[in-house]
């Protein structure tokens, strides 16, 4: 791989907000689609561990949506990962980075670490602040000024007003923001806002409703074209300094392929398993694997010559009956003798049942939906040797689920965090609720490929 190393004046902008629910995803996705419709090559990125927004970003931009999460991969990798994502498969004309939660909200108790503001500093990008202006006037200017002053190293270069009530309301807001010297680059009325269906804390994944998702992205592009000054956004993005850090390189990260053989590794995909980072497949390929995709909803068998399987997260509860209906693949996975790595939804799929619907039966556990959301970053230590971790090895991950398993861990647990054991290691299977980003622990990819032998 030819890794870019020279300074690159990549235009880039971070779309942020004072809190969740202000319309970041609406604006970011609409911007990506509108800029692409102008003929620009746009690189989409998302702050934090979110898997769903990047799916909409990818649909809007026509290339993989990628995450920038200092907690999961380390602050030192954020700019290199941005440059990598903006370089493949072709160099982008602009990068649009959607933030997470409020601008200054990050990992709990870490003073803004892994926040949108933190990432904006790491990639030296100006911030485009999206404001829900419902029931406020001049206070919007005070809020913007406070957001900027809280961390002077974060440059708020413009504001997009969202849910504006009337032309008079818009004039009041524009006048107030002019007083504090922050330009308004767009205004979206309440009537014009485009809604997308939600599940848990985010949108319904793109793969679950592809035609409707495409229609939403098209509507968002038209909304942004009609309400946002795209030329002003481009001018703002061009104020970012050149990227001087070399691009992240998956080959360098794993140290090269594990031997000359290219074992086939199947990654679960399709509507039921949409939670996967683009770098996972890149690292496996760099480690020497032949990476293929299997859809447990539709494919009756693993691809021929599969030597290992990676099953990521998703919303299997929405597809439990259909997954159960694919009995031949379930049986094959129950008897598969190669390494299997499963995260969250993958864990549930490998169990005996999910809400009394039969699953693969590879793991001796039952799972059920609950009314409780388990969510947050985790610092874990491996308790058992497995195809992806060694005892005592520390990793950082993220939990996001509304299910529980019985038992909650196996006789050989996968991880320990918060003074409790979690997950299952049995034979060559490693399964737990923990989502990890392998760019932060690239040895996992190399070990999995080596374990194929």
TrEMBL record:
SUPFAM superfamilies: Class I glutamine amidotransferase-like, P-loop containing nucleoside triphosphate hydrolases. Its cofactor is Mg(2+). Belongs to the CobB/CbiA family. It is an enzyme of class 6 (ligase). This is Hydrogenobyrinate a,c-diamide synthase. It comes from Micromonospora arborensis. InterPro entries: CbiA/CobB_synth, Class_I_gatase-like, CobQ/CobB/MinD/ParA_Nub-bd_dom, GATase_3, P-loop_NTPase. Comprises of two domains. The C-terminal domain contains the binding site for glutamine and catalyzes the hydrolysis of this substrate to glutamate and ammonia. The N-terminal domain is anticipated to bind ATP and hydrogenobyrinate and catalyzes the ultimate synthesis of the diamide product. The ammonia produced via the glutaminase domain is probably translocated to the adjacent domain via a molecular tunnel, where it reacts with an activated intermediate.
């Amino acid at each position: 791989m030819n890794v870019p190393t020279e300074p690159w004046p990549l235009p880039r902008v971070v779309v942020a907000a004072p809190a969740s629910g202000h319309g970041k995803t609406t604006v970011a996705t609409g911007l990506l689609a509108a800029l692409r419709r102008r003929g620009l090559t746009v690189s989409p990125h998302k702050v934090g561990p979110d898997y769903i927004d990047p799916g909409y970003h990818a649909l809007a931009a026509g290339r993989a949506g990628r995450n920038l999460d200092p907690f999961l991969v380390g602050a030192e990798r954020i700019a290199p990962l941005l440059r990598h994502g903006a370089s493949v498969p072709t160099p982008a004309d602009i990068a649009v980075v959607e933030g997470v939660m409020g601008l200054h909200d990050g990992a709990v108790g870490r003073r803004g670490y892994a926040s949108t503001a933190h990432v904006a500093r790491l990639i030296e990008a100006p911030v485009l602040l999206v404001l829900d202006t419902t029931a406020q006037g001049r206070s919007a200017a005070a809020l913007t000024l406070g957001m900027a002053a809280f961390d002077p190293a974060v440059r708020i270069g413009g504001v997009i007003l969202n849910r504006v009530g009337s032309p008079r309301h818009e004039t009041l807001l524009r006048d107030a923001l002019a007083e504090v010297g922050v330009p308004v680059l767009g205004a979206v009325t309440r009537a014009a806002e485009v809604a997308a269906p939600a599940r848990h804390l985010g949108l319904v994944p793109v793969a679950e409703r592809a035609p409707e998702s495409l229609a939403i992205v098209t509507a968002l592009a038209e909304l942004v074209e009609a309400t946002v000054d795209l030329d002003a956004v481009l001018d703002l993005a061009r104020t970012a300094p050149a990227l001087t850090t070399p691009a992240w390189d998956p080959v360098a990260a794993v140290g090269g392929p594990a031997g000359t053989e290219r074992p086939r590794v199947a990654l679960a995909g399709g509507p039921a398993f949409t939670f996967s980072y683009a770098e996972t497949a890149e690292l496996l390929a760099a480690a020497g694997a032949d990476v293929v995709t299997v859809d447990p909803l539709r494919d009756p068998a693993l691809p021929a010559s599969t030597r290992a399987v990676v099953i990521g997260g998703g919303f299997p509860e929405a597809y439990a009956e259909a997954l159960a209906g694919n009995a031949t693949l379930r049986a094959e996975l129950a008897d598969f003798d190669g390494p299997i790595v499963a995260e969250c939804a993958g864990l549930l799929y490998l169990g005996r049942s999910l809400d009394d619907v039969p699953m693969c039966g590879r793991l001796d556990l039952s799972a059920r939906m609950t009314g409780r959301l388990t969510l947050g970053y985790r610092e874990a230590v491996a308790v058992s040797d497995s195809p992806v971790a060694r005892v005592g090895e520390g990793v950082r991950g993220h939990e996001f689920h509304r299910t529980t398993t019985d038992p909650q861990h196996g006789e050989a647990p996968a991880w320990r965090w918060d003074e409790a054991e979690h997950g299952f290691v049995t034979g060559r299977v490693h399964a737990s609720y923990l989502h990890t980003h392998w760019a932060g622990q690239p040895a996992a990819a190399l070990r999995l490929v080596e374990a194929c032998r």
